[in-house]
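Handout, page 2. Input:
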Amino acid sequence: MQILLRTAVVGALAAGCALADITFDQTVKFTGGSMVEMMRRMANNPLLGRKGGALGAAFQDQNYTVYIKGSKMARIGPVMSSVIDLNAGTITTINNQRRTYATQTFDEMRARMQEAQQRMNHGQAVSDLQFDVKVDKTGQTRAIDGKDATETVLTLTAKSAGANGQMVVKVDSWLVAPDAAMQEAGDFYKKLSQQFSYAFAGAPGLGAAGSGIAAGYREMMKLDGYPLLSDISISGVTTPMGPMGGGDPNAPMLITETQASHFVTGPIDDSKFAIPAGYTEEQGRPGPRPQ
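Output:
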């Protein structure tokens, strides 16, 4: 009888500690900065044709449904999707327009992004940038998705100047006390940050700014609360394409807004993490898109 009781208690505790499946919505907006303005001008240039349209589309608002189940996360969007597997150490990028996919290991992706960032930053390594971090709890509050959120502003200042100046990353986050679903999502992002911080860096074409984005997200993971809404502004670098985006490196190069909402728990079918039927593997080394 005691053995049966002990078994039942252990089973109940294990069930209570089991990871829940999480689903939520995520919206990413490119709200300003010299790079975004440059790309949008190029998109309106009739001489660039379809190429210009593709550049403009890359910086349109992006809406995703995010699924987290155990060691896997899928971000499903109408144009681009991705699947991250922490146990396997892989990230799969899915192009829903071309109906193709490409899978790379974290090490392969890290090496490729470092190479691209160095090319865009005139040969200077940017992956090991160190930042001084300032945290400002402003005391401001607002309602987001029906929850009371408080504002915390992170300011990351590069300890050394790069080819284009001294990078400053400002992260304005609105935090809420996490419920169980947000806690699970936050734990996944912390594990991802530890294994592969470059997952937050966006496209290789962002140059040194990619390291700034990654550093900003790493610091966000340390905050007390879940960031339902975050604005990231990066200055102190010029656009990877040089003076076309404007000559003032102290002006913001990139400003993004990310909002998460509608967190729910409930079983998620494994098909959400699979390659869609009929998709073919891309040849070569396709890169990730801005996120």
